[in-house]
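Justification of resources, computational component.

The compute hours requested in this renewal are based largely on the per-chain cost of generating structure records like the one below. Each record pairs the submitted sequence with a full structure-token output. That output is archived, and it is also reused by downstream analysis tasks.
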Amino acid sequence: MGANASKLLEKARASKAGWNRLKLDRLYKGFGFIIKMGNGPHDKVYHPKYPQLITWLPRHNKLGEYNIDNAIKLIDSLQKLEEAENG
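The structure output for this chain reads:
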């Protein structure tokens, strides 16, 4: 996780308005998530080390607040898993 990813996460927590797909992709990738293009209108977002952390992201640029909420929840879950693993 880089400093840029942490700053993006802080911005997501502060405001869920004004987010687009590019910014959300940077947030997910900054925390090690992989975005795999699907066959339908959504892409699969998952973490390679923790396969239970998975969601689907619409391909269109305009995102709902629930997409940002979901990203925050997944990243929080990732951080808890990493803390538990590292002690």
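The domain at 3-86 is CATH 3.30.920 (Metal Transport, Frataxin; Chain A). The beta strands are 34-37, 42-46, 54-58.
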